[in-house]
Amino acid sequence: MNTYNETVKPKILVVDDEEGIRKQLKWALSSQYEVLLAQDKQSALKVFKESTPQVVALDINLYPYSDKQEQGMEILEDIMSLDPRIKVIMITGNDKKEFALRAIEIGAYDYFLKPIDIEEIKVLIKRALYIQRLEQENEKLAKDLETRHKFEDIIGDCPQMQGVFAMIKKAAPTDITVLIEGESGTGKELVARAIHNNSPRKDKPFVIINCGAIPENLLESELFGHEKGSFTDAHAQRKGKFEMAEQGTIFLDEIGELSLSLQVKLLRFLQERVIERVGANQRIELDVRIIAATNSNLRKRAKEGTFREDLYYRLSVLGIHLPSLRERGDDILLLMNSYLNRFNRKSSKKIKGISKQAIKAAREYPWPGNIRELENKLKRAVILTSNSLISAEDLGLKPVENNQSKLLKEARQQLEIKFIKEALAKTRGNVSQAARKIGISRVSFYGLMKKYNIMSPNFTLD
Fold first, then answer.
1. What gap in Å lies between CA 190 and CA 197, rounded to an integer?
2. What is the pLDDT, as a whole number, of residue 347?
3. Taking the domain 403-451, which CATH number applies?
């Protein structure tokens, strides 16, 4: 996206089929802005890509350069796909107002009516640039905030996560075996990767195996490899994950799912640093660091006899406990904003933030799936929502409201309805005048009319 810079003139692209309007706007705006001109879809997109303007003034109807009545709508969609944060102001005649409103739903910033009022367009452009600058500053602040509270790809500011970061930094430079404990979805693999990426082994393989996802009869071969003919389907010699991780790190996720027989073989590797492939007697020495993870209480299981106690103590030379999301306080807001920024970029959406109602609902929700569940809910919300703010409903969460807040909400709605109806009555249905009367933008006023289904057959928009 082209960023706003106060030291140079902002660029304004005017797209209109009427040469007179193009010249008029260029003459009126050139003292404050660098004015770029285009008359049809092809020239508009060419200038937009080459010059990256901050604001576009776009005519809905580009006749005679198009046989389509609303080619401007197509250009709007193309421009928004190239830069979802661009500010587009639609130019329209009185007979095309419904298309201007549809354009706002697509993502246009605002619109103005022909004949052109130069002072009105100047105000709209100035306000559009101001809003754009605020959005960019907010985005930068959000990124800076995320960076300050981030280690590798792990985000957290609560004391528990700061302790996790400290443990990662201590563990990374060594070859010590690490056991990461925490509920499913808390980010154990991210911690393992952070340890590896900050270790002397960072340029060597990082090999992952989920011990709970592979049938027990195949897991030994997956870990240690096999020789040709060692079992029915062993048609060729095959290296296991340990050999693939030579000089690097192997991450054994869900280590608690290992059978007792495989626990013995893993213990042997930790003691002697050797393995044997299935069907072979040859000992293979390896230089591999082990990081293990579990969502079960291995200490308790060791006492119960379902997990070898000697293996547990070998694995947990250095233990890292990851807190659940519900234990992390305001970290949930950091994570939500981080995921929102990421998914906005990936989906070319321009969702502005998360509603207070959604934040409150997220703080009340227990998050049994932890960070993984939060990430999936945010991703789904960004894809499906048509709102500028993520709501509790978008996240699939139940809004949290007490009786007092419900009463306040209802009272506010009744007050808004009263103001809107009174303003329309006093201006004989003129939306622009009514909006000015109560001190909000025309677009916001029209949005409130739609919200409360206040539609009169005699209201006007000019």
1. 10
2. 82
3. 1.10.10
